[in-house]
Amino acid sequence: MCLLLILASILWNGNPHNFMRINVIGTSGSGKSTLAKRIAAKLNLPYIEMDRLYWRANWQGTPDEELYPRLEQLLEQPGWVLDGNYNRSRDIKWRHVDLVVWVDYGFWRTLLQAVLRAARRAWHKQELWPGTGNGESFRRSFFSRESIILWTIKTWRANRLRYAQDMADPQYQHLRFVRLTSPQKADEFLATLT
Q: What is the longest distance spanned by two Cα atoms in the chain?
């Protein structure tokens, strides 16, 4: 019930024409992109994917001096759902954000989701971000030091600690956080977004 009251105050905020600015965060494989797309569709807001902004062809990253102005320009819109962590860009993202949604599923569930997603992408040879040619392969996903699965294993605990600290940090007390610990909680959260 408390979550519903918080969301109602965020969404209404005395003005039915307000737009939401939401950042969905979570460890790779947690399901943050799927949830962010569902939120954007439900609220009819633009969906912004940090990975799409960052990654170039041949898995080359965009330098921060190019990435940050593009991100700032996109965040000038009155409402959006931003999918991604990119901790170093937090000051830019959270300067504009109303709500931070943390997808915090357990380690084994997150790892299983990461493995299944990587296998599905490798099997279908899916291009991850249009125009980049970047895709997962079985070798890259399962037998490489650049493996997204290895990344999930290495970052799950550190991300969890960092996000818990962020929620308690007085510097971010002006932000509203929602921590979703299961797919059922995510569905309940989505149901409140009407």
A: 53
Supply the pTM of this predicted model: 0.87
The predicted-structure confidence for 141-155, as pLDDT tens digits, reads as follows 888 888 999 999 999
**Domains of the chain, each with CATH number or no CATH:** 21-191 (3.40.50.300)
Asked whether the CA dihedral 157, 173, 93, 84 is positive or negative, the reply is positive
Instruction: Tell me the pLDDT tens digit for each residue of 43-67.
Output: 999 999 999 999 999 999 999 999 9
* Cβ-based burial of 50 (10 A; exposed 0-12, middle 13-18, buried ≥19): buried
How far apart CA 22 and CA 5 sit, in angstroms, is 17
